[in-house]
């Protein structure tokens, strides 16, 4: 058996270990190095070098490159959360549901959590942070309308698809990474992004309606999947909701978007602007709530490190995989895929996302390996930016994804109970929409 074939077997086995045991709830901190070790063994060569140099180099490089982005994003989210501003945004959206006609309330209740997630994440709040605010509000809504709790995972339509990769100008980390590599702006390929966003939203709403109708036909209720979240103390209630106008709550997010897209400031600088504006507006509320601002920063950085570590351990795995003969053979095979080069980019980034289980690490690996190749083919940097970001949001949500595991954990749901909704909304639909975007891009739509 040739070294390339053995290496490919090792890659597949490593992925199988990640996916199967992630479904069983094993920590990615354990799984990622173990899977990388399996890949290294089958690839041959020096195993110690693969783990201490290749794995740790990928881990450390990603940490070095994106620590400030993650830290500032998390600090911003922490200020918004502790001041009560994020909760006000969520509650205002939820209030609209109760004003709708009765026949639409259950559907709107399900969709509202996705809408709230979209509003917060488009505003620059890290999903890992805002999910703690939204779970308690979502629980109240779902319990009131007796909606099966597993449908809460449809809220992923507002985090892992169009808000992360399709909306031009979004401050999501995934949309910022290509800017460093390609020298593009966050608004790259705006027409393509807008068309994809509209299509993705339409398909996602259709899926949510289908899933809700299916549960109604089965006679499902909030329980039993809501039993754990109802019993658990999810987040800390801060007592009375602060009296801050909704528009004021949105100002820091607007400032972030304007700094990033209007003044074309660096992503880190834009996040600093958002943090400063949030402190100026909500500093008094933080003091009133007896929140130590220094601790707020420390907690934000701590949260960012935990999130970043989840990504870095997977990036390390991806680095080991990308150093093997099997991976080279797989990537070389892309040259034989028929059709425009843009489809090769779409497939390449999706493969990287599937291997890594992370959109961020997929972009770090994929663009590093393929950006020069596709630029040399004459593809516009803006097209490469938008298609690669959209493609990174496809296979990144397989069961071993750190984001998927975190969201299910906070919602007190197992993979068996809630993962199917994530699969359709964050994997199937984004892949289909991105494939359509590739067709448009090949026709010159940008």
């Amino acid at each position: 058996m040739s070294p390339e074939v053995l290496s490919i077997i090792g890659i597949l086995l490593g992925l199988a270990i990640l996916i199967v045991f992630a479904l069983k709830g094993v920590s990615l901190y354990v799984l990622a190095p173990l899977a990388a070790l399996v890949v290294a063994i089958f690839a041959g060569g020096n195993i110690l070098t693969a783990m201490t140099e290749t794995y740790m180099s990928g881990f450390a490089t990603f940490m070095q490159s994106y620590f400030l982005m993650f830290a500032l994003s998390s600090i911003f989210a922490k200020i918004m959360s502790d001041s009560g501003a994020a909760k006000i945004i969520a509650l205002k959206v939820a209030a609209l549901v109760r004003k709708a006609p009765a026949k639409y309330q259950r559907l709107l209740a399900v969709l509202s959590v996705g809408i709230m997630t979209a509003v917060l994440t488009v505003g620059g709040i890290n999903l890992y942070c805002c999910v703690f605010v939204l779970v308690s509000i979502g629980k109240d809504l779902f319990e009131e309308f007796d909606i099966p709790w597993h449908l809460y995972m449809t809220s992923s339509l507002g985090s892992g698809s169009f808000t992360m990769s399709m909306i031009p100008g979004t401050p999501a980390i995934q949309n910022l990474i290509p800017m460093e590599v390609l020298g593009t702006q966050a608004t790259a390929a705006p027409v393509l992004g807008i068309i994809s966003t509209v299509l993705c939203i339409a398909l996602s709403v259709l899926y949510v309606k289908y899933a809700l109708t299916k549960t109604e036909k089965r006679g499902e209720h909030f329980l039993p999947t809501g039993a754990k979240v109802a019993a658990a103390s999810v987040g800390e209630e801060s007592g009375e909701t602060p009296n801050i106008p909704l528009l004021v709550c949105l100002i820091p997010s607007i400032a972030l978007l304007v700094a990033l897209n209007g003044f074309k400031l660096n992503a880190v600088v834009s996040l600093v602007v958002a943090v400063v504006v949030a402190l100026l507006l909500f500093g008094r509320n933080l003091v009133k709530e007896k929140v130590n601002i220094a601790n707020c920063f420390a907690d934000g950085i701590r949260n960012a490190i935990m999130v970043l570590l989840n990504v870095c351990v997977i990036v390390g795995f991806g680095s080991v995989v990308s150093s093997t003969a099997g991976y080279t053979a797989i990537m070389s095979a892309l040259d034989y895929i028929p059709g425009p080069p843009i489809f090769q980019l779409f497939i390449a980034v999706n493969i990287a996302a599937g291997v890594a289980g992370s959109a961020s690490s997929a972009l770090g690996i994929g663009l590093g390996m393929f950006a020069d190749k596709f630029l040399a083919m004459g593809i516009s940097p803006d097209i490469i930016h938008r298609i690669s970001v959209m493609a990174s949001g496809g296979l990144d949500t397989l069961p071993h994804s750190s984001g998927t595991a975190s969201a299910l954990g906070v919602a007190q749901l197992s993979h068996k109970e809630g993962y199917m909704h994530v699969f359709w909304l964050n994997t199937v639909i984004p892949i289909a929409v991105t494939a359509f975007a590739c067709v448009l891009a090949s026709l010159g739509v940008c």
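The radius of gyration is 21 Å. The chain has one domain: 3-442.
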